[in-house]
Amino acid sequence: MQVSVRVPAKINLALRVGPLRDDGFHELTTVFHGVSLYDEVTVSDEVGSDQPSDQPPDHLSRRFTDEGGDGPLLTIGGPHGSGLAADASNLAIRAIDALAKAAGRTPRARLHIHKGIPVSAGLAGGSADAAGTLLACNQLWGLDWPVARLLPIAQKLGSDVPFALVGGTAVGVGRGEQLDPVPVGRDLHWVVAAADEGLSTPDVYRQLDALRAAREMESADPAVDASLLTALERGDVRTIGGLLANDLQEAALELRPVLADTLRAGNAAGALGGIVSGSGPTCVFLVESAAHARDVAAALVAAGACASAEPVTGPAVPSF
Ligand code: C5P
């Protein structure tokens, strides 16, 4: 038996970062939004089978373990698959282990991840892989647990994994793991402008702490502008564009100053709003329509303002 799940990337329409907590995480309030850029996780119980034939060999990662016979086998392919660790540090391996433990069984499965989401990009691609693994193994192993039962497992894996399980658009509070769905009045069109080299999320948070410390700034309790939620419900794209906000943006720009050029180029190309996505370095631009997205993407590439620019839509949800 084989099960495939496509899980979307996330962007943050607003990311408000509060104080650093004792557990090393920051209190935050965010609006997550899934967009149509996907990783696909395929799991099967044919542990001995060969790699899928559609994957070019240079994009295949090593097997994690096949000595014991009871561990998961992981391969990674796709446009962003090269160079990614297919070992125990991979969040998908941690997800399969966590689900197996909760279900009281061995984590035996063959796992392949087709990476369409750039890595270390502020798009929660690793979280998408973990969520996809939970959703796919839930079915492969015949558990058929409701998502509500997977959420506590997802929470322990990472701050963005619970949202990746459900997708759509949602306010996240706490570490971002307590979710409340947000209605959105129409499909939104975006351009995702990817960078060549990733940024480390902990580094960006640390940079924000340093900036705030240098300014002797108290971090206020993080709150999302209620008018953003109203504009989303109405599908009022101009207002949404003006209200996009990211407290991590300044820190990401300090670590990667060239992103200021990316943001300028997107705005000059007529985007309704543009921000760094999460901890970056990906920048996202809200646009009017699919045609507008193609124009803005072409302008960004022509200006040399990013490594690649892709039109996407949101909200997007995981699908089998
Ligand atoms: O939860 P996740 O593994 O995605 O977090 C990665 C890192 O990002 C954390 O180790 C922490 O440094 C930072 N982080 C944070 N506050 C959050 C979420 C992430 O400081 N709410």
UniProtKB/TrEMBL annotation:
Highest taxon in the source lineage: Bacteria
Matches recorded under SUPFAM superfamilies: GHMP Kinase, C-terminal domain, Ribosomal protein S5 domain 2-like
Range of residues in the leader sequence: none
Pfam families: GHMP_kinases_C, GHMP_kinases_N
MF annotations from Gene Ontology: 4-(cytidine 5'-diphospho)-2-C-methyl-D-erythritol kinase activity; ATP binding
Reactions catalysed, as given in the entry: 4-CDP-2-C-methyl-D-erythritol + ATP = 4-CDP-2-C-methyl-D-erythritol 2-phosphate + ADP + H(+)
Family per record: Belongs to the GHMP kinase family. IspE subfamily.
Protein name listed in UniProt: 4-diphosphocytidyl-2-C-methyl-D-erythritol kinase
Species of the source: Phytoactinopolyspora halophila
